[in-house]
Amino acid sequence: KSFLNHTAYLSCYFPNSQKTDIKDLRVFWQKGDMEVVHEVYYGQEKHDNLSPKYINRTRMDMDKWTLQLLNAGIVDEGQYRCIIQHRDKGSAKVIHTSECLLHIIANYSQPEIAWLHTGELKPSKYLNLTCSSSGGYPEPKQMTWLISHENKTSRLTHHMDVSQDAVTKLYNVTSKLNITVPTNTRTNISCLLHLGGQLGSLVSVPLGI
């Protein structure tokens, strides 16, 4: 995983147990079947075969056998393959391959609750709220409303509207809540954005009524 516009680190997982000199190795990275991302040709960086979008965006740490991909973007997501060939008696043979899958993460804004309401709140009338969060990636799982009063909290999961920016590929999400105005008891309403996987959740500032 790498944050958007940060450096992604992709490892070859090559133990080099034979302590082979890099001058006897050809190391190249591919994305998918076609794109050459980086090439070290018997100890020298080689740029002739690189896909244009990777030129001046990669560095290879030969001590750790790790590729650094600078300014990682959403278009860089995908499967990468590291292939190492050893030059032996004039011919090159593959001695190691490994793959890694790159996922890009962009932080969502803190969810924010807004009123779709003007005028005075009256008991037993309906209260319309929205909760929104923007500028994140990947697409989140769901949005949950938390309604707390008298030491009880209820959870409501409503439909979440999702839009994706055509250029940046970042997501904006919104959920609506329509409930009756609570009477006599103070009520706190929050919304929770579930990002999925190990990314956790984001919670809004509570709205007190």
TrEMBL record:
Q: Which residues form the Ig-like domain?
A: 1-98, 111-191
Does the UniProt entry include the keyword Signal? yes
The family database entries (Gene3D superfamilies) matched by this protein are listed as: Immunoglobulins (2.60.40.10)
Keywords of this protein's UniProt record, alphabetized?
Cell membrane, Disulfide bond, Glycoprotein, Immunoglobulin domain, Membrane, Receptor, Signal, Transmembrane, Transmembrane helix
Q: Has the keyword Acetylation been applied to this entry?
A: no
* Compartments, as annotated in UniProt: Cell membrane
Instruction: Name a single GO biological process.
Output: cellular response to lipopolysaccharide
Q: Which domain of life is it from?
A: Eukaryota
Task: Classify the protein's membrane topology as the record does.
Answer: Single-pass type I membrane protein
GO CC terms in record:
external side of plasma membrane
What protein name applies here? Answer: CD86 protein
Q: Which gene encodes it?
A: Cd86
